[in-house]
Amino acid sequence: MAKKQFKAESRRLLDMMINSIYTHREIFLRELISNASDAIDKLCFLSLTDDKVGLTREDFSIRLTVDNDARTLTVSDNGIGMTAEELEKDLGVIARSGTHAFRSEQDAGELEKADIDVIGRFGVGFYSAFMVASKVTVISRAYGQEKANRWESSGADGYTITECEKDGVGTDVVLTIKEDTDDDRFGDYLTSWKLKELVKKYSDYVRWPIRMEVETTRKIETGETDENGVPKMDWETVMEEQTVNSMVPLWQRSRKEATDEECVAFYKDTFRDSDDPAAVIRVNAEGAVSYRCLLFIPVRAPYDFYTREYRPGLRLYSNGVMIMEQCPDLLPECFRFVRGVVDSPDLSLNISREMLQHDRQLKLIANNLEKKIKSELKKLMDSDRDKYEKFYAAFGVQLKYGVVSDYGMKRELLSDLLLYWSADREKMISLKEYTDAMPESQKFIYYAGADTVERAAKLPQTEQVRARGYDILCFDHDVDEFVAQILGVYGEKPFCNVASQDLGLESDEEKAEAEKADAANRDLLAFVKEQAGDRVANVRLSRKLKNHAVCLSSEGEITLEMEKYFHSIPGSDPDAMKAVRVLELNLEHPAVKKLDEARTADPERASVMAKVLLAQAELAAGVLPDDPAAYGDLVCSLF
Ligand code: ADP
What we know:
The protein is an alpha+beta fold. The chain folds into 4 domains: 10-215, Heat Shock Protein 90, CATH 3.30.565; 259-391, Ribosomal Protein S5, domain 2 (2-Layer Sandwich); 418-505, Rossmann fold (3-Layer(aba) Sandwich), CATH 3.40.50.11260; 508-639, Up-down Bundle (Four Helix Bundle (Hemerythrin (Met), subunit A)), CATH 1.20.120.790. The strands form 4 sheets. An 8-stranded mixed β-sheet has the order 5-4-3-6-2-1-7-8, with helices on one face. Strands 15-14-17-16-19-18 form a 6-stranded mixed β-sheet, sandwiched between helices. Helix 20 packs across helix 21. It is elongated, with a radius of gyration of 34 Å.
């Protein structure tokens, strides 16, 4: 029979499995048991609503069987099974979660490193079987099917799928264990002591019984008696079927019984993350609704996190039975990055997806979790800023979207969790840290927006604000200005964009002075406005510049950054959502002084100077002149 070929990435990974000297190869058992357990979860859930399954909770188990003569170890489950198509689809490529990470690692040119790390980092599931087996056979009968199928592969040369018979629904994964070498005792995986040790170490919390024949010794009577007539006893070695795992899930255990390390290992294994989580949250709640949960805050966003493909949600159990693999209703959108499990005996088992959405108990749990996640994040921010910043680099944008979505419903919840780059301190600070450090004279929380924080910090408009000793928060993301608008105030201090007209810096006398200066320079301003045409709505003398000659600011609600954002949305109307632009001139600057002089002495040259200054203001604000080449010519004409 023609062999089917593995997909390229899978083959590469397979090669690594087969050839690499991998110290953690024993995890293969954990991976196979975890697949078996998931498959049972699925069938068990079906059995709640479908009598045809014909199994009750007590009937489900995972079985490990050793055949020493054939050198095989079989991991069997009576779970949902796989159809021929599923065998092809699911075992023909490596776990999708792993594939992407693996591919990007390859792209990064870190192939050698990938060789060593990939297994531990990505948890490659089923394929890990090839670390210990020279041949893998999967015999599976899917629920609802009469026939079974046999998938078989000896590694990189491909695999075959053939129809076969199998009693009962479920899956047997048969590993033909490799021969021992000088360095490796693969034969250990055929001994009950080793298998028992591995189950205890990696799979103790699996909810389904893992059963196997274990060698035990027991006392037996020999049939003889000693001189006192007491029967003589002897020891006999027998095989006895035992359940080798304790079956108590981690989240059902007390803190003492489940260490943080165990929880972290559970997280990495279950949610396929190579990094330790930033925080582990455990809740054991009793009251209006009882539940236990074990939640994790990741430090790195999955590759598809900011796409529609990402499926948020927590695993939902009722008394140890999984009712939903990813229940999105338990998490508010702003915390969609949180992973974990929730187990509540108060939830009805045979509840439909739609009913679940309206379930009162579930809502209560969701509300509590929201508060808990917020307080844990705040705690992390206060106690381990480095770790929090790592988390924030991955998910800060999500928190910001959370502030602006649903008409700002979650702004109170989230404003304490935001961090922004401080121009003054040159590091990330919270809004509280900003307002706490404000001098008494400062009325506003100042911010500047550009495409990077460095550019924002260098905007000409920041000069007067900084000169007064006021810090500026640097915005570098489209959503930042909307966040400031939705929040409006923080700690009763209003937000103020340094590019807006009134920065609230001047005293009444200063204002009167400025108005006088405006009047005295009316002709200059009119001249520049004429040269600028409709690229700006207004030309004014600046009250915020110090060392720079010009800057661009805006009047009204829509700022330049917002305009840029709106216009970046495909299909948006180029004439809508436009900022009312104002060109500001710094009268103290020599360039502006020269322009003013040239106005009467050489109007033509003055016209060029005005246009060049306008283009400079636009460039500093991140707006390209309409015709950059013509701008270059203008500059040259001044030489
Ligand atoms: P992952 O578990 O990360 O998805 P695996 O490579 O371990 O990756 O498994 C791929 C898929 O194969 C699983 O998602 C599951 O659909 C299917 N599968 C593996 N083992 C079993 C099993 N024992 N019973 C049913 N389906 C299984």
